[in-house]
Design a protein that fits this description.
Number of domains: 2
Distance between the termini: 25 Å
Oligomer: single chain
CATH class of the largest domain: Alpha Beta
Helix content: 40-55%
Bound molecules: flavin mononucleotide
């Protein structure tokens, strides 16, 4: 399948793996790229620019296909060494960066000068338009159903994607709730040029996370996610567990007085304990409503091939068949 996204990034299938903290290591990024999609190393999971440079080298040893790096701009006071991370990306020869969390304008000249394409992930039409205006090459439009940070507007993809299509001229992919060939065809119908998936890629054999995480996603239904940190305007969609229940109880009790320090035990530094140790109640971890559509743990290649075959069958048989009845 050829779309503006496959052409922009030089990939075979219009499927991107979004950056995921403590999931997006070289193993997963390389597996996605080797299967014809676009894999993404999560920059900030690497504690320093030097560590990111080593992870990029490791990924390059595992694939000769294009892969990208996610750079998330955090709402923290002491910011990570972003110039160092940008240098590691450029010097590592990476040609795609997925930015998220904040406006990437400051970093675009250096990235574009090094021939790096930038796809900015955003959760609203106005942010997508802003990304286009500042010169991003593409956007990833992340609907309310997504795992991670859906923003504060709560617009689901059935509205958000066609709205994006009405106003954008740069290509965009649909993100949030994408799982299979049906998702891909629907995303294309709504105006997207491909899909970005997070949660679905965690439940694959190559995702370098504890088996408990994969099993929890398969066991979860579409009713099992919760929104946390709403009062802090840093909303995150997570899988419900004991820590999340505790966190929500604190949010209810403290109301407008809630501060980040009140919930630090449930959210800070919990990812390694969940993703690596498999301690599932250690804290809040991002997971999309799409968990309800995830019933197995295939290899990345089987997953991507299956999505493309399903999409082919839906377009070539079901939809065409409807027209020629
Ligand atoms: C466990 C997990 C961690 C994530 N970490 C990040 C991150 O560090 N930076 C980022 O931009 N997006 C992050 N995301 C969001 C994904 O890149 C993607 O946009 C989202 O998962 C899409 O929704 P889906 O889960 O319904 O596919 C994360 C998602 C998950 C599930």
């Amino acid at each position: 399948m050829k779309t503006k996204i496959t052409e922009l990034f030089g990939i075979e299938h219009p499927i991107i793996q979004g950056g995921m903290h403590y999931v997006g290591f070289a193993e997963l990024a390389a597996a996605v790229s080797n299967a014809g999609g676009l894999g993404m190393i999560t920059g900030l999971t690497q504690r320093s620019p030097q560590a990111l440079a080593a992870e990029i080298r490791r990924c390059r040893d595992m694939t000769d296909k294009p892969f990208g790096v996610n750079l998330t701009f955090l709402p923290t006071v002491t910011s990570p060494d972003y110039p160092g991370y940008i240098r590691a990306i450029i010097e590592g020869g990476v040609k795609v960066v997925e930015t998220a969390g904040n406006n990437p304008q400051k970093w675009l000249p250096a990235l574009h000068e090094a021939d790096v394409k930038v796809i900015h992930k955003c959760t609203s039409v106005r942010h997508a338009l802003k990304a286009e205006a500042i010169g991003c090459d593409a956007v990833s439009v992340d609907g309310f159903e997504c795992g991670g940070h859906p923003g504060e507007d709560d617009v689901p993809n059935f509205i958000l994607l066609p709205r994006a299509a009405e106003v954008l001229t740069i290509p965009f992919v649909a993100s949030g709730g994408m799982a299979d060939g049906r998702s891909l065809v629907a995303a294309l119908a709504l105006g997207a040029e491909g899909i970005n998936m997070g949660t679905r890629f965690i439940a694959t054999t190559e995702a370098p996370v504890h088996q408990n995480v994969k099993d929890a996603i398969v066991a979860a239904s579409e009713l099992d996610t919760r929104l946390v940190m709403r009062p802090l305007r840093n909303t995150e969609r997570v899988l419900r567990n004991a820590a999340v229940d505790r966190l929500l109880e604190k949010e209810k009790n403290l109301g407008a007085d809630l501060k980040f320090e009140d919930i630090i035990d449930e959210v800070a530094g919990v990812y390694p304990r969940i993703m690596q140790d498999g301690t599932m109640d250690a804290g809040a971890w991002s997971c999309g409503m799409v968990a309800g559509l995830i019933h197995d743990i295939p290899s990345v290649k089987i997953l991507i091939d299956r999505i493309m075959q399903e999409a082919d069958a839906i377009i070539g048989k079901r939809l065409i068949g409807l027209l020629h009845r």
